[in-house]
Amino acid sequence: MDLDSAVQSRPRAEFRVRPWLIVPAGLAVGLLGGTYSYLLQRWMRNGQVYEPIEDYAWVVSFNLVAWVAWFGLIAAALWVGQRVRITRANAWRSVPLHLAFGIVFGLVNGVFVGCLRHFVFWLSGFLAMPDGASVTLLMSIQRELLTTFENQVLIYGGVIAMSHVIEFNRTLQDQELQHSRLQARLVEAQLESLQRQLQPHFLFNTLHAIATLVHRDPDTAEAMIVRLGELLRAVFRSDAQQEVPLAQEVQLLEQYIDIQRMRFGAGLKTEIDVDDDVLGVPVPVLLLQPLVENAIKHGFPGPAREGVIRIQASRDGDRVTITVSDNGRGLHACAPSVAGEGVGLRNTRARLEHLYADAHTLAWDAPPEGGFTVTITLPHAASSDVADATWRASA
């Protein structure tokens, strides 16, 4: 999978004020709140209901209208909170503004509910107080403001704080997503750079081998040029990908080995043993070629180049083990300047670290008696059937 595509596929949380939810939310809460208010009053006042009047239908109707209006005010507060942001730079201006909006929020809610309560009382004919005095509209509004105003201002402040938290979280998500995209592009750029290092290294070494045969064996040199062209076409066809199925990587390796056999003759033998159930495992393109090139270059010095190189790949649970080994002279017989990890092995290690992080291992072994072995383990993450079809289609 492309790294940037993987990052872009991550879900992003969104929060939006949906006006169409105001009415159904208000009706649902109003029905529950009205029922609760009616039952609570009957329980606390020995079966009598005073707020707003004694009939259940009136209590619920009052709560339905009041809650729908309240949710409308909450939506308006969220709208204000999204447009008047409190920051360190504008706090001297935005905080007083929100304080003023909070006061307006409390006043509007108190006046509306007071008028609604008075209207319900008037419809029901219940405008008389227990002492016989009449209830005026101003008294209803005053009573509502005295009992709910400060609570509504605090609710407005809580709504504004919540909208700021949501926006802050959204900003953090955007920044994290942008950072992840930049990181993915950086990793891709580093991988492409490492891959570009391999291609000239491989190409120059092969051209040097051809140059040594041009005058001594023109026919073989010409055949090597033809095979090199075929190999380069296959390599550059995979250039847009960081990973290819192991089957395709083995095919590229076989083309490279054919070129080397033309140069060194029958003395260079290779054994490739790849299990069928790992043919579809994605591996870095040109993973095997630099390891085999190192084996040829450092394991078998001299013109004869007698020796065997073995490439093995098998599955072990959810892991795939790939081994490249030779029976050459080994690391201990190499010159001091050659001992240690060369360009090919360092490049391979770096590419694996970029692609798989801690999900891979790379180790090499050089016993005193000779030979050199590189062992790589990777996650098993593909279908061998799909990969085999891809390999055969590209062959």
What features would you describe in this structure?
This protein has 10 helices and 7 strands. It has 395 residues and is α+β, with helices and mostly antiparallel strands. It folds into 2 domains: 3-180, no CATH class; 214-394, 2-Layer Sandwich (Heat Shock Protein 90). The chain has a 5-stranded mixed sheet with strand order 2-4-5-7-6, with helices on one face. The longest helix has 77 residues, at 137-213. The radius of gyration is 39 Å and the shape is rod-shaped. The chain starts with a helix and ends with a helix. Residues 1-13 and 383-395 have low confidence and may be disordered.
Secondary structure topology:
Elements: H1 3-8, H2 22-44, H3 56-83, H4 91-124, H5 137-213, H6 218-237, E1 243-245, H7 246-264, E2 268-274, E3 282-284, H8 288-299, E4 307-316, E5 319-326, H9 343-356, E6 361-365, E7 372-379, H10 384-394
Parallel strand pairs: 2-4
Antiparallel strand pairs: 1-3, 4-5, 5-7, 6-7
